[in-house]
Structures are given as C-alpha cells and as structure tokens.
Amino acid sequence: DGDSHLSPYERKRLKNITENAKFFAALKLHEVSARLNQLTTKRQSHVTKRAKPKKVEDLPVRRRSMRLLRVEPLDFPLLETPASLAAEEYPQVPVGPLPMVPEDEAENSKWTEALLSTWMRISELKAEDADSGTPDIKRYQESLSSMMLREENIRKVVKARVCSMAIHPSKSTILVAAGDKLGHVGLWNVSCGTEEEGAHTFIPHSFQVNCMHFSPCNPAHLLSLSNDTLRCGDVTRAVFDEICRGEENFSCFDFLEDNASTAIVAQWDGPVAVVDRRTPGMSSELSADIGFRRTRTVHVHPVNKQYFLAAGSVDVCVFDVRYLKAKGNKPLSSLTGHTKSVASAYFSPLTGSRVVTVCADDKLRIFNSKNIQVLLIFKKQSDKIKTHKNSQPKPGWAIWDPKQEHCFLVGSMAQPRQIQVFQDTGALLHSFCNVDCLSSVCSINVVHPSQNILVGGNSSGRLHVF
Question: Tens of pLDDT along 428-455?
C-alpha cells in the first residue's frame, strides 16, 4: 500500500528485487542477502522522490506544419490540429481551367454576378493614356495630403495574410484584387458602397498567391502566380485558365511585352523561366539558371523590355532576356552593397533610370540604373523589418508610384502605423496614417496608375484604401 504512488514498472521491479533477496536469503547467502536488502532500501527511497511519469494521454500532440495543413496561424500554440478536417476545408485545386465561381456562390450568386459584370464593363472602356509628365514635388505632396482613409474603405477581402495585390486601371471604378497565403483571390469593388456586392473570394490556387497583375493590354484578364501555377482569370469567359504549371515554386513574374503574351517568371530556388502564353502546353519555353540561390522578385525595364532586374539572397542583377540560356548566364550589371537578404528590387516606372531595393539590413537603397552606382543609402523609418509569426519572414516591398518617376512608397513599423512616401533623394514626403482606422502594418501596397488611390494590405487579409 505504501508503494501505491509508484508506476507499475517500478512496483514490478521492486517486487523482483525483494523476491530475489528472499531467494538468496533462503540459500543462506547472508552477505549477498544483506547487500541486496540494502540496495532495495536505497532504491525504494530514491524511487519515491521521482516524479510520476506523464500518461500517454497527457503528453502534447506532436505539432504539425500549419503551412502544409493550410491552417492560419494563431496567436497561441496549437496543441491539436485536425489534419483531416483541414484537408477537407481546403482541398487541392484541380489541374486545368477552373470556373470563376466564388466560395460563397450558393448564398450570394446575384451579388457575384454584379461584381463580375462591373469588372467586364470597366474593362471594355478604353483607358486614356496616363499623363506621362511628372508633377513637381510641391503639387505631388498636396495631392498626397488630400488622400484620406475612411472606415467604409476598410474591408477584410481574403481570409489570410495578403501576399499580393493588383488594382484595375479604370478611372471610374475602384476594383482591387488581393491574393492570400491560402491560394484565395479576393475581388473588391470599393466604389459600389454595398456590403453584399462589394467583395467576393475565389480559390484558383492551392498555395499562396505570390504575385498578381491586371493585363496591361486587356484589364479583363487578371494574372495570378502561385507556388505551382500561373493562371489568367478571364472575366469575359468567367474562367481561370492555366498558363503554366510546374514544381519549381514560382515566386514572382512580370510581362516582357505590352501585349502580355510573354512573361519572365522567378523561382524561389533561383532560376528564372520564360513563359509564352501563345504556345500550347503548360511548360515554360526556357528555364535559366542565373546563379542565384533564391530569387524573390523580377521586374522588366519599362522602356527597354529586353532587360529585367532579379533580386534574391544578397544578389540584385540586371540580365538581358535575349541571351538567356539553360546555364552559364552572366549578369550585365550587379547592384552590390546588400549585406543581408533582399526582399525586392524595382525600376522606376517611367524611364527606369532608378532602382529601389529593400534589404533585411533595415535599409532602402536607391541606384542609378544607367551607371549602376549607389546614389544614396538611408535608414528605413522603423526599428526592424516586418516579420510574421509561424511563417517565413517577408519584409515589406518598396514600390514606385507609377505616376511619379522620383517617389516610392513602403510600409512602416513606426507608431502610429503608416505607409511612407519617399523621394529618391531620401526625403520623407508624406506619411499615410489614421490612428482610428489603421493599426496594423501594411507590408503589401499598390498605387493606381492614374488616380490618387493607394491600397495597403495587412497580415489578416484586410485592405485599406486611401
């Protein structure tokens, strides 16, 4: 009874020792018996001090990868993850074309039809050429100051962290697309003003949507890139076509021509691929090893479209797509000085005469792309680069305002939360903030090509429209 606190194993072991001691005592091996009795007493006193082993049911369940289970990370440790339920909730998207049917089609079919009809209507209108002249800084600052964030212009459009965004070039209607880490694509008609018609979510991908662009020649087409596939959402046919598929873990893409027929696609593990939408099949035309260990972004020069910029680990290089081959590619120029991982690199929008990069060493860098010489290095206005719990760190991107050759925007960790606008001289021109409406970091941002409209996306799937 005194040993009731011991585990079954310890009680059995103690019983065996005692029986052995009695056996040797019966053999009159007194010295051995005395020694064994001494060991028994010592073991017993030692065992009573040991903590009771945990039962099997008390042990924590082995943690599973939330990324593989397609489950949004929580703010507290997840002790149990129902893998079968997660798989049922987020099934793998089938190969091939997919109908443009939203997740909530059964409940809101008429509102979905209204949203898609709006997208089709504004895409049929020929967009006027944007003013190519760059306004002076004073007038530009005045236009920035006139942009406000209101509560009705904030909405949760996708379920998970925003990984990419695109804005329709229409001057009459604000239509925004957002892709999240679960493969969802959300469309939001900001201008409609009704809760039902406003936003709907589609599921064209199985993995996170890394990059999105409306076609520059036909905004009825929305191209979205996930880890394993590049798709084109064609609203005129209400279908998500599959353009390219592979296991290369795609990270980013950009159009090589104004007609959007060809694109350069980056892969997370380094190579880049050339994709031609006019050729049959789902394979790329060429996969080229450019010597990178990781490629996060690619960007085509706005004027000389044979040149593209690739950014990865600590590498930022300019290549000529005409001379790409499977192996042995050498860059035309290298933008050096980065000491840590580079999140993004983009040419300035009108002439491509500048390049802005964001690096994990907490610096923004401006390069002269004509001579590839560093013009300026200055500190980002924050304490650290934005990271996300339970996921790969993803620093915010610095993007150029497409209407302004010398100014770019970037999300900030500063309090109150804000999106900052810098001049290429390093001067801070404006900070978009609203203490009542903006309380999170907008690491992904997009600017309208002709209107004073800015959209910021955060890690919870919420969009903020200034």
Answer: 999 999 998 998 999 999 999 999 999 9
Provide the H-helix boundaries in 386-454: none
Q: Tokens 């082995």 label which residue?
A: 62
8 Å CB contact between 433 and 413: no
DSSP code of 55?
P
Question: How far is 384 from 288, CA to CA, in rounded Å?
Answer: 34
> CA-based diameter of the chain, in Å?
110
Q: What is the mean pLDDT of the chain?
A: 82
Q: Choose among 266, 314, 255, 307: nearest CA to 290.
A: 266
Q: Percentage of the chain with pLDDT > 90?
A: 56
Using CA atoms, how far apart are residues 266 and 230, in angstroms rounded to an integer? Answer: 11
CATH topology of domain 98-126+133-383+392-465: Methylamine Dehydrogenase; Chain H (2.130.10)
Q: What are the tokens at 400?
A: 């150029």
pLDDT at 385 over 60: no
Instruction: Give CA–CA dist 15/18, Å, rounded.
Output: 5
